[in-house]
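>> Question from a student workshop board

For tomorrow's exercise we were told to take the sequence and the ligand below, predict the bound structure, and bring the output to class. My setup keeps failing. Could a helper post the expected result so I can at least see what it should look like? The ligand is nicotinamide-adenine-dinucleotide.
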Amino acid sequence: MGGEKVRVGVIGCGGIAASHVSGYLKSGMAEITALADSRVERAKALAERFSLKHASVYENYEDLLKDRSVDAVSICTPHHLHAEITIKAAEHFKHVLCEKPIAISLKQADEMISACRKNGVKLAIVFQNRFSQDVQRVKREFENGDFGIPIYGEAVVKWYREDKTYYHADEVAKSWRGKWATEGGGALINQTIHLVDLLQWIMGPVEYLYGIYDTRMHSIETEDIAVSILRFKSGAIGYILGSVDLRPQEDWVAIYGSRKSVIIGSDKRVAREWSEESGTVVSKESVGERMETVTPFLGHDETVRDFIESILKDRPPAVPGEEARKSLEIVLAIYRAHRTGSKVALPLVE
Ligand SMILES: NC(=O)c1ccc[n+]([C@@H]2O[C@H](COP(=O)([O-])OP(=O)(O)OC[C@H]3O[C@@H](n4cnc5c(N)ncnc54)[C@H](O)[C@@H]3O)[C@@H](O)[C@H]2O)c1
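>> Workshop helper replied:
Here is what the output should look like for this input. Compare the format with yours to find the bug.
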């Protein structure tokens, strides 16, 4: 590691990459020394946008990995490349912050985890909502037993994406979105996985599930709507709905126990909480203060800061590869349940 700041290379300079760059710059603990994109003009444009005059720009990410002025990388490429790039980065002893989903198969995820472990580098995956203060509080309270008997948990993502502006927005989008081989799935693996991650993080491991998916309104191979019912190892029952077909758009994760329930969504107005102790339903409108902290849909600043600190302090990142593998496993199990028309038990054997 050179100097006080962690020197970062960004691989894949499309839509989400700017959130990474801005997070690194704001952290004050990192500098961007290199950018790579197979469409090199995108890497140049990102460098210009953030006035990164001294950053090297590469067309081939392997050249960035050979660059000795890079200590760590952010991987912001299409899903099918996460594994290949992470493994090569680890072989070049670069720490890795990779976008969600960790990969498109468990085999890939396992290879990423073991390559990073073997080469002594960090592997962090972006699930920014885990840094929400309210999500962390609910996780803590659930672990403390404040919810009583866990009864039911729900992850709902009703979002809307158009072919014109999303799946077929440009040549790059067309090349990977909406395809099993490159996106690895659709609404579930890309969008819904954020809330699947929160649901399983709070409620614990899944024992088995059923699933059904369909493609109702997009010209894509992959699913644009999916539903799963599931049983947690705790005995609680769960439900997942993920779609990019639905308006009005809304989303939430909801956790119900015998003594307490909490609903958190990206719109603060859905935030509600009930507890036996208070005997009433608390909402932002009725009480204010406490629910003002509901900020589940965060940007990347906390994720990036945590990654950099994990390197500087040599501690595990908040969401290591092993953690991110869990939501991938649930998503892949739902796909299998649909295809086989049967109940799928976890752990999933590929
Ligand atoms: N955490 C979040 O909230 C969030 C939000 C959006 C996207 N994402 C994730 O970020 C990743 C990228 O998504 P996006 O929307 O920015 O996609 P995008 O299509 O806008 O950008 C991907 C970029 O990768 C580049 N690329 C493709 N192959 C490459 C290669 N071999 N080497 C170098 N660059 C290559 C493309 O040219 C493109 O510029 C995905 O994993 C996605 O799920 C996460």
